[in-house]
Amino acid sequence: MSAAPAPIEYLYGIEAGHEFGNDWIPTRVIRFRITKKTPRRVYYLPREFGRLQERFVDRAVLERDGEVWRKSAGWWEPDIRVYLNEPVLETAAAPDLGALKAAMAAAHPDRGGTDEEFIAARRRYEQARARAGTQQ
Question: Is this model's pTM higher than 0.90 or not?
Fold first, then answer.
């Protein structure tokens, strides 16, 4: 009888939201496969620009704090901060488009509002609508 294969373990990082061409890529959690554990280090494989390059973090700090800041990492790298457990991303509450549209209508000059109030209300409504379209 053969031994059961070792379970695959992961470390986690957060990839910041960014533009890719004309598309917006929202912030997301990325996982990195652990390749080896030693008493002092945990080795993992981040996928950077399509290539695999093994990196490591301090095992004692990772197990004690649940996360490690890589001092040599650039701010754009998803593994600048490596997590032992999958982090939960905070999501902003969706704007109430109906209320913003009603505020825009109430600020219209035909209903007693000023041009500046209407322009500001319309800008808020259009920005919220654009953000809601990217979250879907």
Answer: no
Nearest to 62 by CA among 12, 2, 123, 6: 12
| pLDDT greater than 50 at residue 94 | yes
Question: pLDDT tens for residues 73-93?
Answer: 888 888 889 999 999 887 767
Structure tokens at 78: 């998803």
Q: Quickly tell me which residue has 């593994």 as its tokens.
A: 79
Q: Which of 88, 75, 74, 83 is nearest to 42 (CA)?
A: 83
Give the closest residue to 86 by CA, choosing from 6, 31, 17, 16: 31
What is the Cα gyration radius of the chain? 23
Terminal Cα-to-Cα distance of the chain (whole angstroms): 49
What size, in residues, is the chain?
136
How far apart are the C-alpha atoms of 77 and 26, rounded to whole Å?
15
Amino acid (one-letter) located at 55: R
Listed by start position, the domains of the chain span 10-83, 97-134
